[in-house]
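Assemble and predict.
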Amino acid sequence: MSKLLHSVRLAFQNLMMRKLRSGLTILGIIFGVCSVITMVAVGEGASQQSQERIKHLGSDNVILDSVKPSGDEEVEENNVLKYGVTSLDIERIRDAVPGVKMILPIRVLNEAVNYRGIAKSSQVIGTYHDLQTVKKIDLLKGRFLCEMDELNKLKVCVISRSLANILFSYEDPLSCELKIRGTYFQVVGVVQESGDDGERDSQVNCYVPMSTLKSQFGDLEVKKSAGSFSAEKTEFTQVIVHMHSPEQVLTAESQIKKLLEYSHKVSDYKMTVPLQLLKEAEATKRMFNIVLGSIAAISLVVGGIGIMNIMLATVTERKREIGLRRALGAKKRDIIRQFLVESVLLSLCGGFIGVILGVLLPYGIEHFTDMAVVVSPASVVIAFGVSALTGLVFGIYPAAQSAQLDPIEALRND
Amino acid sequence: MIRLENITKAFPLNDEEVIALKGVNLTIKEGSFIAIMGPSGSGKSTLMNILGCLDRPTSGRYFLDDVDVSRMDDDSLSEARGKKLGFIFQSYNLLSQLTVVENIQLPLVYQDVSLKSQHDYTIELVEQVGLSDRIDHKPTQLSGGQQQRVAIARALINRPLMVLADEPTGNLDSQTEKEIMEVLSALHKDGKTVVVVTHDEAVAKYAEYVIRMKDGVIVKTEKNEIEAKNESKAESKTEKGSV
């Protein structure tokens, strides 16, 4: 132990004696460690953001969106373009696909929501009370939609926090009435959707009972343009098929696909499986990690070669010292330890500075750009550990060289 | 007791062999002060290296403290050097980054001896070589003579059986040379075994016995009149007989 302490102390003194050289030697390790931590932090941030978005869609859901078919496939009936997922599809899925817990249709209208002269264009979403559970919606005030609202076609609405902030700056939104397309809706609750941090990509949503939406606004959407008009009819904008467990999602996906392919001659729907997206995102992340790992390995090898180079020069320079130590009773392994400790200490210093820079740099990036970063403790530990290992591996050869020196020759060295 | 029996040492040179020592027999009794002299190529440095366990003889046996070290492996030789020998070099060989005390204690690092336990002895040695006021100085802050005193204290820290000095005053002026040799004489008077390799007759005068070498053999052993107070502590003979 005292030998090791002596080696560490002496190594530190030797490195401090040649500050510039030591500094230049560890630059490779500093950049290697710093770049690994930074790249992982940026990659992890991006990956977490996308995974969060995917998870928000629900890993036990299959999502069907109605999509307007492309030009040559249009099916028109009395000048009305009918497309999208229908209640008939829902019935078929409910009957044929096992493991379905619930099917939740949603109809979205882009409408201006008015309150005392303030108008905000929002997504008016006709849906059922189950949406709260399926989309993990947090209630901030009042209540969410309930079965009674649906049955009685009540003119009530639940608004998202961002909409509440815009329309009701100075008063409690509950019990106030909003005007949508000339109809008044009473605000019964304020919600925050999961994944909505209230700042970025805030959703301006207004939830109303599906029955109310249908009775008030119908299925038909008429668009007028100069000299002509077109009408579109979509029953549901989106249908969420909520499964009992994520394991059933992939089987359900293929069954739903077959069902819809049979009943829809044109592709007027889009199927999204968040679980699939999640798996793809994870595979991308794995790929990214492999690429990162290779870059890190290359940079650390370069850093290690720098250390080996300097250590070999040091051994030549300090031949006399090696001879002296051997004469004073040092065994070969004592000399090896001395030089190994020095190279490990060098790389540890590099690793340490690299870690500090690597932790600070991502926050700098986050501050000056819009990118989200997540400094992962594992990347810090691994980068630091690998840098220490680099010092050890690349220190072995110079250390072995030093021990091979003949003490008489070494002492004679001038 | 230190005994060399028929020691030879050969070095390969290209395809030939150069024989540096040709059957050296030497017995050094405890407490003697010996100077080894000889011209360049006489084999005195090779003999010194073998005495210092830095090299192994090609043939013959070397008993250090009655243990045959001539066939020992590298680690055991290191241990023998660390425990039984003290070295003083011409160019002092102090580590510039260490203080006086740290340099003196350097051999202890390899002996598994706690440095604290030897602190008092270190201070005693510092006083003995007259450097009490320089304890925390670095070698670069000391004169040549002072540096050699530190080296002497370092050679004594492990309480060695024998102190080997290779041209200890080679880099010093005559006044400092005198001071250093007086320190070595004092060690001898304290009962230490001291072996000095030199080509300086003035230095050799301090020794009890002078061994003269030529062409790899001991040609003569002289007893110094001034210093020879004790009766024959060293005996030497060549292969062919006593000189």
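Residues 68-267 of chain A form one domain.
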